[in-house]
Please model this.
Amino acid sequence: MPATFLLALTLNAGYNAALVAVGAALLGIAAGSAGAFLFLRKRALVSDAVAHATLPGIGIAFIVMVLLGGDGRNLFGLMVGSAVSAGLGLLLVDWISRRTRLAEDAAIGAVLSVFFGFGIVLLTVIQTMSRGQQAGLESFLLGSTAGMLMQDAVVVAAGGALAVAAVVLLRRPMTLVAFDPDFALASGIPVRRVDLAMMGLVMGVTVIGLKLVGLILIVAMLIIPAVTARFWTDRTDRVVLAAGALGGVAAYVGAALSASAPNLPTGPIIVVVAFAAFLVSLLFAPGRGVLASALRRRRFKLRVHRRQGLLALAHGEPILDQLTLAVLRREGLIREDGVATEEGRALAAKALRDERRWQVARTIYQDEAISGRYDVLTAIETVLTRDQIAAIDARIGGPALVAGGA
Amino acid sequence: MDEAFVALSLPPILIGMFAAIACALPGNFLILRRQALIGDAISHVVLPGIVVAFLVTGAVTTWPMMIGAAGAAVVAVVLIEAIKRLGRIEPGAAMGVTFTSLFAFGVLLLEQSDTSSVHLDVEHALYGNLESLIWLSAEGWGSLLDPVALAELPPELGRMGAVALLMVLLTLVFWRPLKLATFDEGFANTLGIPTVTLGIGLVIAAAVAAVAAFDAVGSIIVIAMFICPPAAARLMTNRLEIQMLWSVAFAVLSALLGYVLAGYGPLWLGGENAVSAAGMIATVAGILLGLACLFAPHRARIGAPRDAVG
Model:
């Protein structure tokens, strides 16, 4: 299997696998970057409603095409049908959450369950239709890449490229609207239209992805890369780029994995790969990751203990806390028996002096900008200018020596 | 006709109604707390739960599956909370990441394991098999009084009825604290109501309803019933007591009408085969909600800008 995986990864595992991998990668890029805006707009789950709302469109398109005497499984026709019903679902979510007092999450849930339910009704109707090869519409639930045709792959690839182009074109207004809709509105940006365009983009990605990953899991391709990317950067353009890249890589690797072993359907495996990337980011990303914030908290705690220990030394109070003692000992500020070293005394004097300076500073400057910064840890030099500190020192006198400690 | 109705239609209709009521009751609170999509998330993660239960026990039996599903629901809720807190991710996105991933995991497990010998597939999980829950030993309305025939009722009926009853009881017992905590969490806190525990309890109750209903009727009804009847009821009144009653009424009506339309509708239209009852029940619930959105007395948001109302 690893050998097949490598073959698939280098597009050498056969024509169909290569087709699927390239199509999946393009779709992943489009979904990741479009989803990033949706996520920043805090409307990630609207995509869930859109995705589920495609089902009745697929059913109706199939029925219409069969009644017209055509091939019911024509991918393009099914995509048009699903786009129409997804668009309708989208407008309904928008309408319900704006015109009634129901919240958007209720509107999303209502649209997704009702459209999906109606879609299933249509699927059972199709199952009993006498004409047309009905088999295979269920594959749109979970996606299926087995026996994907060249023309299907071209449709997916072209759609993915179009979606990426739309993201590039609309990135500025979408960024503004995602961050501050009120400001965007005041700057003359048609917020509602941009919102609808954003949703249209999501709808496009959903429709393109139906064949490949299925309507239930396309939601994951929109949301997971964006959330993952958010862990690594605070800049919008980078979130969008990273989400696109992550989506593309996850889809490509997933498609390759799926080609390398039996019974590994493409959609779910892509989602699992993306989720693995998410987990790694959640745990290890610098800044927002769990590990990083645990380390940060630990460092902060040590700083507090160090500072309190120094102040205790300065006041000549005994230190009882084990962690404080350990911190001071490790830095060579106290000896094994708890007596302050030369360096410890000097730093303690400095800490005490800073504390005094702060006391005075807080009586002089009573505005939040300065006294609000007092948290025992912030060095006063980072808040006040040298002249201001000199003025304070003039009031409290010169440095005083600290006694030898306990 | 009576015999056929009692044997073939009565049990599924009752099961559908009980499922609808069991989901709609907690749904009222979920809607008001802006947690409407919890039901959606739970019903997606039920799949990996039952697949794992199947892999562990090697058989499709009810109780292990229910336990597996409930376990998966708990895992999902914990995971959503963890992602929200640890990663500072907005709730919707945290939910989206969690339930899609768990669902994908469930599908992969299902595909990898040998389930060809048993009736376990994704479609079944989605639509359920309401139509097949029939009462073969019924011979007419008289069988309702016949203990021998009653013992042959589909077990889902008893289970679903019990869960619906449990939801009614829970709603009555926790009515006051739930109502307070839902409308004014701060005030409820000052009264000493453990709002966090209550919130978790509500989600667990919803999960129990979802898992039980899922077993009988599939996840699509679960999602629809968590949201549509309470949402429609919310537009009918400003009082929570009345809203609960409306939601139960809408839920029962959806189940009844949906089942009848699915079973007999196609015949009236000249078709020959029934359509999916689960799908039709969800559709009817949606139509009721649509009507409520258009005509219900309290549909508008108070203080909404004019262009949003008109």
Observations:
- Chain A touches chain B through 62 residues (CB under 8 Å).
